[in-house]
Design brief:
Layout: E1 12-19, H1 31-45, E2 48-56, H2 69-81, E3 87-89, H3 92-95, H4 99-105, E4 112-114, H5 123-153, H6 161-194, H7 200-209, H8 222-234
Parallel strand pairs: 1-2, 1-3, 3-4
Helix pairs in contact: 6-8, 7-8
Length: 235
């Protein structure tokens, strides 16, 4: 937790930075920005950074200590230097964006300092800022979903135009290949139907018996036969 600064607090700091590939490019969240904030704080307040731990997120669900090996390492290093040695983060959200996770860290009895909030921030302030940030994120998410729903209702096309433009050639090639496959298999299906295969399952069995496989090289299902018939009819 973040303790109220006291005269007996160690003047050593253990720095902890948390980044992800996505966040590296965002102002105020990149690694260098965090380091600069920590260094400015240490210089202004007379602390010395003894060690630095950098956490690189690999995906969601990182608000658990067993998925934060560098944070666990920072806690161990802080204890090694003494129980009054704080861990410093540039911003509270670098420690976590989840108020429950932050509360759980209090059980380790290691002091935390946020360079943004200052050394005098106490546990009440920690909970308050974390709770406010969590509530704001929930409100932003709700407003975003509502805005998207309204835009969709107005007929606005959602999505990333650049991404859709980049995917267009791939989708066109995929459709062309599927159309060609349907055109090739359609005469074989017609032959099976003339031979008495009247159901989708029976047609699939007839195709399997003739050694014809789906594009994925699998046996035919009734759904796959239906899809091919529908596509062939549209050609």
């Amino acid at each position: 937790m973040i303790y109220k600064r006291a005269n007996h607090m160690s003047k050593s700091l253990i720095a902890y930075c948390r980044v992800s590939t996505k966040e590296q490019g965002r102002s105020g969240l990149g690694l260098e920005a965090q380091r600069d904030a920590i260094e400015r704080f240490a210089s202004a307040e007379g602390f010395e950074v003894k060690a630095e731990f950098i956490e690189v997120e690999t995906g969601k669900g990182s608000d658990a200590l067993d998925r934060r090996p560098k944070l666990a390492g920072a806690l161990a290093e802080a204890r090694r230097h003494g129980k009054t040695t704080p861990i410093i983060v540039a911003k509270l959200d670098r420690l976590s964006r989840d108020v429950h996770f932050i509360s759980g860290l209090m059980s380790h009895k290691t002091p935390f300092i946020s360079a943004e909030l200052g050394a005098d921030a106490d546990p009440f302030m920690l909970h308050l800022y974390a709770a406010l940030a969590e509530k704001e994120r929930a409100l932003i998410s709700a407003r975003t979903k509502a805005a998207l729903a309204r835009a969709k209702a107005r007929g606005t096309k959602l999505g990333n135009p650049r991404l859709e433009e980049a995917r267009a050639p791939m989708l066109a090639a995929k459709k062309k290949a599927a159309d060609a496959f349907a055109a090739e298999v359609a005469p074989i299906i017609a032959e099976a139907q003339r031979a008495g295969a009247t159901t989708l399952r029976a047609i699939g069995a007839a195709l399997d018996a003739r050694g014809v496989r789906t594009p994925q090289g699998r046996p035919w299902s009734a759904m796959m036969v239906r899809n091919v018939l529908k596509r062939a009819a549209a050609l």
